[in-house]
TrEMBL record:
SUPFAM superfamilies per the UniProt record, alphabetical: Aminoacid dehydrogenase-like, N-terminal domain, NAD(P)-binding Rossmann-fold domains
Important for catalysis (site feature) positions: D175
Active site, renumbered: K135 (proton donor)
InterPro entries: Aminoacid_DH-like_N_sf (IPR046346), Glu/Leu/Phe/Val/Trp_DH (IPR006095), Glu/Leu/Phe/Val/Trp_DH_C (IPR006096), Glu/Leu/Phe/Val/Trp_DH_dimer (IPR006097), Glu/Leu/Phe/Val_DH_AS (IPR033524), Glu_DH (IPR014362), Glu_Leu_Phe_Val_DH (IPR050724), NAD(P)-bd_dom_sf (IPR036291)
Limits of the Glutamate/phenylalanine/leucine/valine/L-tryptophan dehydrogenase C-terminal domain: 211-459
Protein name: Glutamate dehydrogenase
Family of the protein in this entry: Belongs to the Glu/Leu/Phe/Val dehydrogenases family.
Chain positions recorded as NAD(+) binding sites: T218, N250
TM region(s), chain numbering: none
Any Gene Ontology biological process: glutamate biosynthetic process
Keywords: NAD, Nucleotide-binding, Oxidoreductase
Gene Ontology cellular component terms for the protein in this record: cytosol
Amino acid sequence: MKRINTIVDAKAEIEKLKNPNCAEDDIFFQAMEEVLLSIFPLFKSDEVYSKNAKNAVIRRLITPDRVIKFKVVWMDDNNEVQVNTGYRVQFNNALGPYKGGLRFHPSVNEGILKFLGFEQILKNALTGLPLGGAKGGSDFDPKGKSDFEVMKFCKAFMRELYKHIGPRIDVPAGDIGVGGREIGYLFGEYKRMTSAFEGVLTGKPFFFGGSLMRPEATGYGVVYFTRKMLELDGKESLEGKVCTVSGSGNVALHAIEKLQQLGANPVTCTDSKGMIYDARGLDLALLKELKFVRRTSLEEYAKVHPEAAYTPVSEYPEGAHAVWDIPCYAAFPCATQNELNKKDAENLVKNGCVSVSEGANMPSTTEAIDLMLKNKICLAPAKAANAGGVAVSGFEMSQNAAMQRWSFAKVDVKLQETMEEICENVASTAKEFGVEGNYVVGANIAGFKRVADAMIAEGV
Ligand SMILES: NC(=O)C1=CN([C@@H]2O[C@H](COP(=O)(O)OP(=O)(O)OC[C@H]3O[C@@H](n4cnc5c(N)ncnc54)[C@H](O)[C@@H]3O)[C@@H](O)[C@H]2O)C=CC1
Ligand SMILES: O=C(O)CCC(=O)C(=O)O
Protein backbone atom coordinates (compact mmCIF):
# COMPACT_ATOMS: atom_id res chain seq x y z
CA MET A 1 0.00 0.00 0.00
CA LYS A 2 1.41 3.41 -0.93
CA ARG A 3 1.65 6.24 1.55
CA ILE A 4 -1.82 7.41 2.58
CA ASN A 5 -2.16 11.15 3.09
CA THR A 6 -5.87 11.76 2.77
CA ILE A 7 -9.10 9.89 3.35
CA VAL A 8 -9.54 9.89 -0.44
CA ASP A 9 -6.22 8.01 -0.78
CA ALA A 10 -7.44 5.55 1.84
CA LYS A 11 -10.74 4.96 0.02
CA ALA A 12 -8.94 4.48 -3.31
CA GLU A 13 -6.58 1.92 -1.80
CA ILE A 14 -9.47 0.05 -0.15
CA GLU A 15 -11.36 -0.02 -3.44
CA LYS A 16 -8.42 -1.86 -5.03
CA LEU A 17 -8.71 -4.59 -2.40
CA LYS A 18 -12.31 -5.43 -3.41
CA ASN A 19 -12.95 -8.68 -5.21
CA PRO A 20 -15.68 -7.76 -7.73
CA ASN A 21 -16.15 -11.39 -8.81
CA CYS A 22 -17.16 -12.69 -5.41
CA ALA A 23 -20.48 -11.50 -3.93
CA GLU A 24 -19.86 -13.65 -0.84
CA ASP A 25 -17.00 -11.30 0.03
CA ASP A 26 -19.25 -8.21 0.30
CA ILE A 27 -19.74 -8.70 4.03
CA PHE A 28 -16.01 -9.25 4.57
CA PHE A 29 -15.40 -6.05 2.66
CA GLN A 30 -17.89 -4.18 4.87
CA ALA A 31 -15.96 -5.22 7.98
CA MET A 32 -12.59 -4.45 6.42
CA GLU A 33 -13.67 -1.04 5.11
CA GLU A 34 -15.00 0.03 8.51
CA VAL A 35 -11.67 -0.82 10.11
CA LEU A 36 -9.39 0.60 7.43
CA LEU A 37 -11.24 3.90 7.16
CA SER A 38 -11.42 4.39 10.88
CA ILE A 39 -7.69 3.76 11.48
CA PHE A 40 -6.92 6.61 9.08
CA PRO A 41 -5.89 8.97 11.98
CA LEU A 42 -3.14 6.45 12.80
CA PHE A 43 -1.72 6.58 9.26
CA LYS A 44 -1.64 10.34 9.43
CA SER A 45 0.11 10.49 12.79
CA ASP A 46 2.46 7.51 12.74
CA GLU A 47 4.95 6.96 9.95
CA VAL A 48 5.63 3.34 10.92
CA TYR A 49 2.22 2.38 9.57
CA SER A 50 1.79 4.87 6.72
CA LYS A 51 5.31 5.02 5.27
CA ASN A 52 6.79 1.67 6.03
CA ALA A 53 5.32 -0.02 2.99
CA LYS A 54 7.91 -2.79 3.09
CA ASN A 55 5.94 -4.36 5.91
CA ALA A 56 2.72 -4.39 3.84
CA VAL A 57 0.86 -4.71 7.14
CA ILE A 58 -2.56 -3.97 5.68
CA ARG A 59 -2.28 -6.45 2.84
CA ARG A 60 -0.95 -9.12 5.17
CA LEU A 61 -3.65 -8.39 7.74
CA ILE A 62 -6.59 -8.63 5.34
CA THR A 63 -5.41 -11.88 3.75
CA PRO A 64 -6.15 -15.01 5.80
CA ASP A 65 -3.16 -17.26 6.52
CA ARG A 66 -5.26 -20.11 5.14
CA VAL A 67 -8.86 -21.10 4.40
CA ILE A 68 -9.55 -24.77 5.06
CA LYS A 69 -12.65 -26.15 3.34
CA PHE A 70 -13.89 -29.72 3.63
CA LYS A 71 -16.79 -32.05 2.97
CA VAL A 72 -18.85 -33.31 5.92
CA VAL A 73 -20.81 -36.50 5.25
CA TRP A 74 -23.23 -37.83 7.86
CA MET A 75 -26.40 -39.95 8.15
CA ASP A 76 -29.71 -38.46 9.27
CA ASP A 77 -32.34 -40.29 11.36
CA ASN A 78 -33.92 -41.77 8.20
CA ASN A 79 -30.57 -43.30 7.26
CA GLU A 80 -30.26 -40.85 4.38
CA VAL A 81 -26.79 -39.57 3.58
CA GLN A 82 -26.38 -35.80 4.05
CA VAL A 83 -23.52 -33.68 2.74
CA ASN A 84 -22.49 -30.29 4.14
CA THR A 85 -19.48 -28.02 3.75
CA GLY A 86 -17.16 -27.30 6.67
CA TYR A 87 -14.66 -24.44 6.97
CA ARG A 88 -11.94 -23.06 9.18
CA VAL A 89 -10.48 -19.67 8.32
CA GLN A 90 -7.14 -19.39 10.14
CA PHE A 91 -6.71 -15.68 9.72
CA ASN A 92 -3.77 -14.40 11.75
CA ASN A 93 -1.57 -15.83 14.51
CA ALA A 94 0.76 -12.89 15.15
CA LEU A 95 -0.33 -12.65 18.79
CA GLY A 96 -1.04 -16.28 19.68
CA PRO A 97 -2.72 -19.49 18.50
CA TYR A 98 -5.66 -19.02 16.11
CA LYS A 99 -8.78 -18.52 18.23
CA GLY A 100 -12.46 -18.00 17.40
CA GLY A 101 -15.83 -19.69 17.26
CA LEU A 102 -17.59 -22.16 14.97
CA ARG A 103 -20.94 -21.18 13.45
CA PHE A 104 -23.51 -23.74 12.27
CA HIS A 105 -26.13 -21.92 10.20
CA PRO A 106 -27.44 -22.39 6.62
CA SER A 107 -26.14 -18.92 5.66
CA VAL A 108 -22.50 -19.84 6.42
CA ASN A 109 -20.08 -19.34 3.52
CA GLU A 110 -16.46 -18.31 3.11
CA GLY A 111 -17.27 -14.57 2.99
CA ILE A 112 -19.14 -14.61 6.32
CA LEU A 113 -16.35 -16.56 7.98
CA LYS A 114 -13.71 -14.19 6.59
CA PHE A 115 -15.63 -11.21 8.02
CA LEU A 116 -15.96 -12.94 11.40
CA GLY A 117 -12.31 -14.09 11.39
CA PHE A 118 -11.07 -10.60 10.53
CA GLU A 119 -13.10 -9.02 13.35
CA GLN A 120 -11.83 -11.73 15.68
CA ILE A 121 -8.16 -10.75 15.12
CA LEU A 122 -8.73 -7.23 16.43
CA LYS A 123 -11.16 -8.31 19.16
CA ASN A 124 -8.71 -10.85 20.52
CA ALA A 125 -5.95 -8.23 20.40
CA LEU A 126 -8.10 -5.88 22.52
CA THR A 127 -8.37 -8.49 25.30
CA GLY A 128 -4.60 -8.19 25.84
CA LEU A 129 -4.36 -12.02 25.85
CA PRO A 130 -2.01 -14.04 23.59
CA LEU A 131 -4.67 -15.01 21.04
CA GLY A 132 -4.68 -14.93 17.23
CA GLY A 133 -7.84 -14.73 15.12
CA ALA A 134 -9.88 -17.41 13.33
CA LYS A 135 -13.45 -18.48 12.63
CA GLY A 136 -15.08 -21.59 11.21
CA GLY A 137 -18.29 -23.48 10.83
CA SER A 138 -20.65 -25.09 8.40
CA ASP A 139 -23.83 -24.52 6.40
CA PHE A 140 -25.42 -27.29 8.54
CA ASP A 141 -28.77 -26.13 9.97
CA PRO A 142 -29.30 -27.42 13.52
CA LYS A 143 -32.94 -26.21 13.48
CA GLY A 144 -35.37 -29.12 13.51
CA LYS A 145 -32.58 -31.72 13.85
CA SER A 146 -32.76 -34.37 16.55
CA ASP A 147 -30.12 -34.48 19.25
CA PHE A 148 -28.76 -37.65 17.64
CA GLU A 149 -28.45 -35.93 14.24
CA VAL A 150 -26.61 -32.98 15.77
CA MET A 151 -24.23 -35.44 17.43
CA LYS A 152 -23.59 -37.33 14.20
CA PHE A 153 -22.96 -34.11 12.30
CA CYS A 154 -20.55 -32.78 14.98
CA LYS A 155 -18.57 -36.00 14.96
CA ALA A 156 -18.30 -36.06 11.16
CA PHE A 157 -17.25 -32.37 11.20
CA MET A 158 -14.49 -33.05 13.75
CA ARG A 159 -13.18 -36.06 11.81
CA GLU A 160 -11.94 -33.50 9.26
CA LEU A 161 -11.23 -30.52 11.52
CA TYR A 162 -9.00 -32.34 14.03
CA LYS A 163 -6.09 -32.41 11.57
CA HIS A 164 -5.85 -28.63 11.62
CA ILE A 165 -6.26 -27.70 15.32
CA GLY A 166 -4.40 -28.10 18.61
CA PRO A 167 -4.03 -26.30 21.95
CA ARG A 168 -1.03 -24.30 20.64
CA ILE A 169 -2.21 -24.18 17.01
CA ASP A 170 -5.90 -23.31 16.76
CA VAL A 171 -8.55 -23.45 19.49
CA PRO A 172 -12.17 -23.23 18.22
CA ALA A 173 -15.21 -22.40 20.39
CA GLY A 174 -18.95 -21.76 19.92
CA ASP A 175 -20.92 -19.15 17.99
CA ILE A 176 -24.41 -19.17 16.43
CA GLY A 177 -25.75 -22.75 16.50
CA VAL A 178 -22.81 -24.06 18.53
CA GLY A 179 -23.14 -24.18 22.32
CA GLY A 180 -22.09 -26.54 25.13
CA ARG A 181 -23.91 -29.53 23.61
CA GLU A 182 -22.11 -29.24 20.25
CA ILE A 183 -18.71 -28.47 21.83
CA GLY A 184 -19.14 -31.61 24.00
CA TYR A 185 -19.72 -33.81 20.93
CA LEU A 186 -16.85 -32.17 19.05
CA PHE A 187 -14.47 -32.61 22.00
CA GLY A 188 -15.48 -36.28 22.37
CA GLU A 189 -14.60 -36.96 18.74
CA TYR A 190 -11.31 -35.02 18.94
CA LYS A 191 -10.30 -37.20 21.89
CA ARG A 192 -11.26 -40.36 20.00
CA MET A 193 -9.23 -39.36 16.93
CA THR A 194 -6.10 -38.21 18.80
CA SER A 195 -6.22 -39.95 22.20
CA ALA A 196 -5.27 -36.53 23.64
CA PHE A 197 -7.17 -34.91 26.48
CA GLU A 198 -6.12 -31.31 25.97
CA GLY A 199 -7.56 -27.79 25.78
CA VAL A 200 -8.27 -27.84 22.06
CA LEU A 201 -11.76 -26.32 22.29
CA THR A 202 -13.24 -23.78 24.68
CA GLY A 203 -16.82 -23.53 25.88
CA LYS A 204 -16.57 -27.17 26.96
CA PRO A 205 -19.06 -28.47 29.52
CA PHE A 206 -17.65 -27.92 33.03
CA PHE A 207 -17.17 -31.59 33.89
CA PHE A 208 -14.52 -32.08 31.22
CA GLY A 209 -12.47 -28.91 31.38
CA GLY A 210 -14.88 -26.08 30.63
CA SER A 211 -14.52 -22.82 32.53
CA LEU A 212 -17.24 -21.70 34.88
CA MET A 213 -18.91 -18.58 33.44
CA ARG A 214 -17.93 -19.20 29.79
CA PRO A 215 -21.65 -19.57 28.85
CA GLU A 216 -22.48 -16.27 30.57
CA ALA A 217 -19.28 -14.43 29.60
CA THR A 218 -20.24 -12.71 26.35
CA GLY A 219 -23.62 -11.41 27.55
CA TYR A 220 -22.36 -10.39 31.00
CA GLY A 221 -19.29 -8.80 29.40
CA VAL A 222 -21.39 -6.60 27.10
CA VAL A 223 -23.24 -5.23 30.12
CA TYR A 224 -20.03 -4.70 32.14
CA PHE A 225 -18.59 -2.80 29.17
CA THR A 226 -21.72 -0.65 28.88
CA ARG A 227 -21.72 0.14 32.61
CA LYS A 228 -18.13 1.43 32.34
CA MET A 229 -18.77 3.34 29.09
CA LEU A 230 -21.77 5.17 30.61
CA GLU A 231 -19.68 6.02 33.67
CA LEU A 232 -16.76 7.37 31.57
CA ASP A 233 -19.18 9.42 29.48
CA GLY A 234 -20.90 10.87 32.54
CA LYS A 235 -24.27 9.30 31.70
CA GLU A 236 -26.81 7.88 34.16
CA SER A 237 -26.33 4.21 35.10
CA LEU A 238 -28.48 1.34 33.80
CA GLU A 239 -30.34 0.96 37.11
CA GLY A 240 -34.08 1.38 36.65
CA LYS A 241 -33.73 1.95 32.90
CA VAL A 242 -35.71 0.32 30.10
CA CYS A 243 -33.41 -1.65 27.77
CA THR A 244 -34.10 -3.36 24.47
CA VAL A 245 -32.30 -6.55 23.48
CA SER A 246 -32.43 -8.50 20.21
CA GLY A 247 -31.72 -12.22 19.87
CA SER A 248 -32.62 -14.95 22.32
CA GLY A 249 -29.53 -17.13 22.22
CA ASN A 250 -26.52 -17.43 24.44
CA VAL A 251 -25.43 -13.79 24.22
CA ALA A 252 -28.90 -12.20 24.40
CA LEU A 253 -30.24 -14.21 27.34
CA HIS A 254 -27.11 -13.69 29.45
CA ALA A 255 -27.12 -9.96 28.66
CA ILE A 256 -30.75 -9.89 29.85
CA GLU A 257 -29.74 -11.79 33.00
CA LYS A 258 -26.97 -9.32 33.90
CA LEU A 259 -29.21 -6.32 33.10
CA GLN A 260 -31.83 -7.68 35.48
CA GLN A 261 -29.18 -8.30 38.16
CA LEU A 262 -28.10 -4.64 37.86
CA GLY A 263 -31.68 -3.43 38.29
CA ALA A 264 -32.37 -2.53 34.65
CA ASN A 265 -35.57 -3.55 32.88
CA PRO A 266 -34.91 -5.42 29.61
CA VAL A 267 -38.25 -5.63 27.80
CA THR A 268 -37.61 -7.24 24.41
CA CYS A 269 -35.97 -10.20 22.72
CA THR A 270 -36.21 -11.64 19.21
CA ASP A 271 -35.61 -14.73 17.12
CA SER A 272 -35.61 -15.18 13.35
CA LYS A 273 -39.45 -15.38 13.37
CA GLY A 274 -40.45 -12.46 15.60
CA MET A 275 -40.18 -10.26 18.69
CA ILE A 276 -41.46 -10.41 22.27
CA TYR A 277 -42.19 -7.09 23.98
CA ASP A 278 -43.00 -7.52 27.65
CA ALA A 279 -43.22 -4.05 29.23
CA ARG A 280 -43.43 -5.53 32.75
CA GLY A 281 -39.98 -7.07 32.29
CA LEU A 282 -39.03 -10.37 30.66
CA ASP A 283 -39.61 -13.75 32.29
CA LEU A 284 -36.03 -14.99 31.93
CA ALA A 285 -36.63 -18.44 33.42
CA LEU A 286 -39.27 -19.08 30.77
CA LEU A 287 -37.02 -17.75 27.98
CA LYS A 288 -34.19 -20.06 29.07
CA GLU A 289 -36.54 -23.03 29.07
CA LEU A 290 -37.92 -22.16 25.62
CA LYS A 291 -34.53 -21.51 24.01
CA PHE A 292 -31.99 -23.70 25.86
CA VAL A 293 -34.16 -26.72 26.76
CA ARG A 294 -37.14 -26.92 24.38
CA ARG A 295 -35.34 -25.08 21.52
CA THR A 296 -38.62 -23.60 20.32
CA SER A 297 -40.00 -20.30 18.96
CA LEU A 298 -40.65 -17.14 21.02
CA GLU A 299 -44.30 -17.37 20.02
CA GLU A 300 -44.63 -19.81 22.94
CA TYR A 301 -43.76 -16.99 25.38
CA ALA A 302 -46.93 -15.09 24.47
CA LYS A 303 -49.01 -18.23 25.08
CA VAL A 304 -47.77 -18.33 28.69
CA HIS A 305 -47.88 -14.51 29.09
CA PRO A 306 -50.77 -13.18 26.96
CA GLU A 307 -50.09 -9.62 28.29
CA ALA A 308 -46.82 -9.61 26.34
CA ALA A 309 -46.92 -8.62 22.66
CA TYR A 310 -45.58 -10.98 20.00
CA THR A 311 -44.82 -9.35 16.63
CA PRO A 312 -43.94 -11.70 13.78
CA VAL A 313 -41.25 -10.44 11.41
CA SER A 314 -43.78 -10.45 8.55
CA GLU A 315 -45.95 -7.82 10.29
CA TYR A 316 -43.36 -5.10 10.43
CA PRO A 317 -42.78 -2.46 7.70
CA GLU A 318 -40.03 -3.39 5.35
CA GLY A 319 -36.59 -1.94 6.03
CA ALA A 320 -36.96 -1.66 9.81
CA HIS A 321 -37.08 -4.03 12.73
CA ALA A 322 -39.78 -3.87 15.42
CA VAL A 323 -37.34 -4.17 18.30
CA TRP A 324 -35.51 -0.90 17.55
CA ASP A 325 -38.78 1.03 17.52
CA ILE A 326 -39.42 0.42 21.23
CA PRO A 327 -38.32 3.45 23.31
CA CYS A 328 -35.33 2.59 25.51
CA TYR A 329 -32.41 4.08 27.42
CA ALA A 330 -29.89 1.48 26.17
CA ALA A 331 -30.11 -0.97 23.26
CA PHE A 332 -28.29 -4.30 22.92
CA PRO A 333 -28.28 -5.91 19.46
CA CYS A 334 -27.31 -9.53 20.27
CA ALA A 335 -28.67 -11.60 17.35
CA THR A 336 -26.72 -11.40 14.10
CA GLN A 337 -24.89 -9.23 11.55
CA ASN A 338 -26.58 -6.21 9.90
CA GLU A 339 -29.71 -6.51 12.05
CA LEU A 340 -29.76 -2.77 12.85
CA ASN A 341 -30.05 -0.55 9.76
CA LYS A 342 -30.30 3.18 9.12
CA LYS A 343 -34.08 3.26 9.70
CA ASP A 344 -33.61 1.43 13.01
CA ALA A 345 -30.89 3.91 14.02
CA GLU A 346 -33.24 6.79 13.20
CA ASN A 347 -35.89 5.22 15.45
CA LEU A 348 -33.41 4.82 18.30
CA VAL A 349 -32.31 8.46 17.98
CA LYS A 350 -35.93 9.67 17.73
CA ASN A 351 -36.82 7.78 20.92
CA GLY A 352 -33.92 9.23 22.93
CA CYS A 353 -31.77 6.11 23.20
CA VAL A 354 -28.46 6.96 24.92
CA SER A 355 -26.29 3.92 24.18
CA VAL A 356 -26.10 0.99 21.77
CA SER A 357 -23.89 -1.95 22.74
CA GLU A 358 -23.13 -4.57 20.12
CA GLY A 359 -23.37 -8.08 21.57
CA ALA A 360 -23.59 -9.66 18.11
CA ASN A 361 -20.73 -9.39 15.61
CA MET A 362 -21.20 -6.35 13.32
CA PRO A 363 -24.96 -6.02 14.00
CA SER A 364 -25.08 -2.41 12.74
CA THR A 365 -24.83 -1.47 9.07
CA THR A 366 -22.30 1.19 8.04
CA GLU A 367 -25.07 3.78 7.53
CA ALA A 368 -26.52 3.00 10.98
CA ILE A 369 -23.10 3.44 12.63
CA ASP A 370 -22.59 6.82 10.92
CA LEU A 371 -26.02 8.02 11.97
CA MET A 372 -25.64 6.91 15.58
CA LEU A 373 -22.20 8.51 15.92
CA LYS A 374 -23.42 11.74 14.34
CA ASN A 375 -26.25 11.85 16.89
CA LYS A 376 -23.87 11.27 19.81
CA ILE A 377 -25.22 7.87 20.80
CA CYS A 378 -22.55 6.05 22.87
CA LEU A 379 -21.81 3.19 20.49
CA ALA A 380 -19.94 0.21 21.94
CA PRO A 381 -18.57 -1.69 18.91
CA ALA A 382 -18.75 -5.48 18.87
CA LYS A 383 -15.02 -6.14 18.82
CA ALA A 384 -14.71 -4.37 22.17
CA ALA A 385 -18.13 -4.91 23.76
CA ASN A 386 -18.49 -8.65 23.11
CA ALA A 387 -14.85 -9.57 23.79
CA GLY A 388 -15.81 -11.05 27.18
CA GLY A 389 -16.62 -14.39 25.55
CA VAL A 390 -13.23 -14.91 24.00
CA ALA A 391 -11.51 -13.47 27.09
CA VAL A 392 -13.06 -16.19 29.25
CA SER A 393 -12.12 -18.69 26.53
CA GLY A 394 -8.56 -17.48 27.09
CA PHE A 395 -9.03 -18.10 30.82
CA GLU A 396 -10.31 -21.60 29.99
CA MET A 397 -7.11 -22.27 28.01
CA SER A 398 -5.02 -21.13 31.00
CA GLN A 399 -6.99 -23.39 33.36
CA ASN A 400 -6.62 -26.38 31.00
CA ALA A 401 -2.88 -25.83 30.53
CA ALA A 402 -2.34 -25.61 34.30
CA MET A 403 -4.82 -28.45 35.06
CA GLN A 404 -6.75 -26.02 37.29
CA ARG A 405 -10.34 -24.99 37.93
CA TRP A 406 -11.15 -21.45 38.92
CA SER A 407 -14.25 -20.48 40.92
CA PHE A 408 -17.18 -18.63 39.34
CA ALA A 409 -16.35 -15.59 41.49
CA LYS A 410 -12.71 -15.55 40.35
CA VAL A 411 -13.67 -15.69 36.66
CA ASP A 412 -16.33 -13.03 37.19
CA VAL A 413 -13.83 -10.63 38.79
CA LYS A 414 -11.33 -11.21 35.96
CA LEU A 415 -14.07 -10.70 33.35
CA GLN A 416 -15.15 -7.40 34.91
CA GLU A 417 -11.53 -6.22 35.08
CA THR A 418 -10.94 -7.21 31.46
CA MET A 419 -14.07 -5.44 30.15
CA GLU A 420 -13.27 -2.28 32.12
CA GLU A 421 -9.66 -2.28 30.88
CA ILE A 422 -10.81 -2.71 27.27
CA CYS A 423 -13.30 0.13 27.70
CA GLU A 424 -10.68 2.47 29.23
CA ASN A 425 -8.10 1.57 26.57
CA VAL A 426 -10.59 2.18 23.76
CA ALA A 427 -11.76 5.49 25.28
CA SER A 428 -8.21 6.77 25.82
CA THR A 429 -7.12 5.73 22.31
CA ALA A 430 -10.07 7.65 20.84
CA LYS A 431 -9.07 10.70 22.88
CA GLU A 432 -5.40 10.37 21.86
CA PHE A 433 -6.39 10.41 18.18
CA GLY A 434 -8.70 13.41 18.53
CA VAL A 435 -12.06 11.63 18.39
CA GLU A 436 -13.04 11.54 22.08
CA GLY A 437 -16.17 9.45 22.71
CA ASN A 438 -15.83 7.56 19.41
CA TYR A 439 -15.43 3.98 20.63
CA VAL A 440 -15.54 2.62 17.07
CA VAL A 441 -12.36 4.41 16.03
CA GLY A 442 -10.77 3.82 19.45
CA ALA A 443 -11.34 0.04 19.25
CA ASN A 444 -10.12 -0.26 15.67
CA ILE A 445 -6.92 1.71 16.30
CA ALA A 446 -6.10 0.04 19.63
CA GLY A 447 -6.70 -3.48 18.21
CA PHE A 448 -4.89 -2.79 14.93
CA LYS A 449 -1.81 -1.31 16.61
CA ARG A 450 -1.28 -4.36 18.80
CA VAL A 451 -1.49 -6.80 15.87
CA ALA A 452 0.45 -4.59 13.46
CA ASP A 453 3.32 -4.12 15.92
CA ALA A 454 3.61 -7.90 16.34
CA MET A 455 3.52 -8.43 12.57
CA ILE A 456 6.22 -5.84 11.98
CA ALA A 457 8.36 -7.34 14.77
CA GLU A 458 8.16 -10.87 13.35
CA GLY A 459 9.24 -9.72 9.88
CA VAL A 460 8.20 -11.11 6.53
N1 LIG B 1 -21.40 -17.16 21.81
C1 LIG B 1 -20.43 -16.30 22.01
O1 LIG B 1 -19.66 -16.43 22.96
C2 LIG B 1 -20.26 -15.12 21.14
C3 LIG B 1 -21.20 -14.77 20.17
N2 LIG B 1 -21.06 -13.62 19.48
C4 LIG B 1 -22.04 -13.21 18.49
O2 LIG B 1 -23.30 -13.03 19.11
C5 LIG B 1 -24.37 -13.27 18.18
C6 LIG B 1 -25.32 -14.30 18.74
O3 LIG B 1 -24.60 -15.51 18.97
P1 LIG B 1 -25.04 -16.59 20.06
O4 LIG B 1 -25.97 -15.97 21.03
O5 LIG B 1 -23.82 -17.26 20.53
O6 LIG B 1 -25.79 -17.62 19.14
P2 LIG B 1 -27.04 -18.58 19.49
O7 LIG B 1 -27.02 -19.65 18.49
O8 LIG B 1 -27.04 -18.94 20.92
O9 LIG B 1 -28.22 -17.59 19.22
C7 LIG B 1 -28.34 -17.02 17.96
C8 LIG B 1 -29.32 -15.92 18.07
O10 LIG B 1 -29.36 -15.20 16.84
C9 LIG B 1 -30.67 -15.18 16.35
N3 LIG B 1 -30.55 -15.21 14.88
C10 LIG B 1 -29.74 -15.98 14.13
N4 LIG B 1 -29.94 -15.71 12.83
C11 LIG B 1 -30.89 -14.77 12.79
C12 LIG B 1 -31.51 -14.07 11.76
N5 LIG B 1 -31.20 -14.31 10.49
N6 LIG B 1 -32.45 -13.14 12.09
C13 LIG B 1 -32.75 -12.88 13.39
N7 LIG B 1 -32.17 -13.52 14.42
C14 LIG B 1 -31.27 -14.43 14.12
C15 LIG B 1 -31.31 -16.40 16.91
O11 LIG B 1 -32.68 -16.30 16.97
C16 LIG B 1 -30.70 -16.42 18.30
O12 LIG B 1 -31.32 -15.50 19.12
C17 LIG B 1 -23.67 -13.66 16.88
O13 LIG B 1 -23.45 -12.51 16.10
C18 LIG B 1 -22.32 -14.18 17.36
O14 LIG B 1 -21.34 -14.12 16.35
C19 LIG B 1 -20.04 -12.76 19.73
C20 LIG B 1 -19.09 -13.04 20.67
C21 LIG B 1 -19.08 -14.29 21.37
O1 LIG C 1 -14.54 -17.97 22.54
C1 LIG C 1 -14.01 -17.90 21.45
O2 LIG C 1 -12.97 -18.46 21.14
C2 LIG C 1 -14.61 -17.09 20.34
C3 LIG C 1 -15.94 -16.48 20.56
C4 LIG C 1 -16.38 -15.89 19.27
O3 LIG C 1 -16.58 -16.60 18.32
C5 LIG C 1 -16.50 -14.45 19.12
O4 LIG C 1 -15.94 -13.71 19.93
O5 LIG C 1 -17.14 -14.00 18.15
